[in-house]
Amino acid sequence: MATDLSGRSGEMGGIALSRRVLLGIALLVVLIAAGYVLVPGFASYTNIRSMLLLAAFLGLASIGQTLCALLGSIDMSIPYVIGSANIILAGLFNWGVPPILACLIVLIGGIVIGVINGVLSFRLQGQALIMTLGVGFAVVGASQILTSIGSVYAGNVLGEVPEWLRDVSSIAGTTFGLPIPSIVLIWIAIAVIIIAIMAKTPFGRGFYAVGGNRRAAARILISEFRTWTIAYAISGAMSAITGMTLLGFSGGGFVGVGDPYLFTTLAAVVIGGTSLLGGWGGYGSTIVGTLVLIILTSLLVGLGLSYAMQQAVFGLLIVPMVALYARTPNLRDQI
Amino acid sequence: MKNDFRPRFERHQHLVAPIFLIAVLLLVAMVRAPQLFTIDGIGGAIIVVTPLILATLALTPIVLVGRGGVDLSVGPLLGFINVGLVKWLVETGHASPITVVAYIVSAGVLYQVLIATIIIYVRISPIIVTLSGYLVLSGVNLVILDRPSGVAPEWMQSWGSGTSILSPVFFILIAMVTFWFVFSRTSFYQQILLTGANERMAFANGVNTVAARFGAHVVAGLFTATAALTYTALIGSGDPTQGNTYTLAAITALVLGGTSLAGGSGGGLGSILGAICIYLISYILSTYNFGTVAGFVTQMSTGVILVVSLLVNNLMNRRVRAL
Questions:
Q1: pTM of the model
Q2: Is B306 within 8 Å of A266 when comparing Cβ atoms?
């Protein structure tokens, strides 16, 4: 489909992309200014640090969603993998598994789930939404059963979290003596790597090729199946990392810790300007979307809005943001 | 006439998996929980399963009309109608049957018309529009009613007892199912299917795709309204969050019933069977003594069944295409 769209990817694409990012950055500036004026203490170091920390979690979780969106697909298993990684890691600590080994097990588990998601949703084109949701359900159910064995606190795993993990991702964490949790720096490093790969390497450009026009991608020998599987594998890995570091943030395993990431990862991708139809956008846009969501949340909390109202505001924000740059062409123009 | 068999089989082959699954589940239920097959058991089952059947039927036309449209907001809309009914009508004493019906129908239909308008004229993908609807409504519901409270209208309070099969909820279910089958015999329904199967081709062949999409959403609004009514009868009060769970349950039921999320293929009978499957699965699982992990077992089996039934549907579609 849409062979008429492929011709646009030249200069037009560049202009459209920069306009989207500029728009997001403009929104960011407005939000920061509003926060500075309306909320006392908004620009204090404590608040900035906590916003950066929350942005790091959301940013890491959104990497996979961005890659899937570039392919025109979606990954709904992210919140469930995050919650599972969180309680499984806490469970492994409780069972006395060495911390490094425990983290490796969880990371590999995340990648395996990602590969399963990728293979299945590639095979069932167009059903990725429900497929990944089903896999997510199965995973989160299984990990809760696993961690509940011999415990009375179903869904919660209490226990000792190692000092170093708390240093990585708790609000009071430090990096080499600097008063900033390392996860923020890790996020920035991963973000730079991802953006560079997506922009400069044939592997990264392959995502745009497959998402933009899969028949053309196949003709230039890009394996659609491989790209698809890798996107979901990265999504699984990043969700696992988010889940593990959230354990350091909260200090106790709780399966519901992933729930907010179901819609916020999607919102970060969409508000940033990556089209869910595939082929357009990138992780740079998602970072802007992530910061918009986090700063807006901080602003709304500062103004005293309840969680329910915050959700409603997010919802109201999505449609106009998408309407600005991700409208599908009129049916008459598609024939 | 002789070659009539294959097209008919193709049209109904998506029902093979759900019928097989229901048969297996009924057999298990007969062994595990014979009390399900008493008057009380069936009466109770109808009360519980009706909101899910109606919510799944509400999703069906929206999915059939295509563009990958799944109404993620069906659950929060159900909750919205429920809390609005309890808060705005019952508490102010305006809860006569006529005002209640007028309220639920107009709330359901107006919301769906708004969603359809955004999808058609702003041209945003349906999943984003209904995602935004999910977020807005689930927030608004909590603002209207911050915790489960209130009561259903007085004339509705005996509906949820489920001590006989022929309860008012049962008659609502029969009426709405009849409505669905009349609707699915119309040429308008055919136009919805054509639009969902290939929108460009339908448009080029003179199908009014805009009308088909609006129509699908209006029908969805009617079904969501009645789902909300029977849901209110089931819980007998207002609940701002419980309705949200119907989104995932209804999508699962729809997929179990063999309707393709890609649009254009599937149907209402599959959705009804799918919803019954979901009910039977949770009912059978509740007869096992899983203790504190019961909820997790249900979640895990829902996921596994979802994935397996998608794969089965996919395999069968390939086989039919190969014939």
A1: 0.85
A2: no
